[in-house]
Predict the structure.
Amino acid sequence: MNLHSMMEEMQNFQKNLQNASFTGTSGGGMVKITLLGNGVVKKIHIEKTLLVPQEVEVLEDLVVAAFNNAKSEIEANISSTMSKYGIPSELFKVGL
């Protein structure tokens, strides 16, 4: 593969990544956050049973965990794709 075709593939990957969805979960799936590949939050799902005023801190922790899980999914996707080309994934940053 020549440099030009690799650059085209990287541009396509970046474009596709922006529109791809990655879902992170926590609390056994009770909290789900879907991020686009550029880090924008697309959707948040919280089971109604978690909406208890006395348990706000638990819910906050679950939301953070779900977000971080989704972010890890994006980073794993980037790392996997970059490794195919022998490129360190640290060179490819998405606004996270």
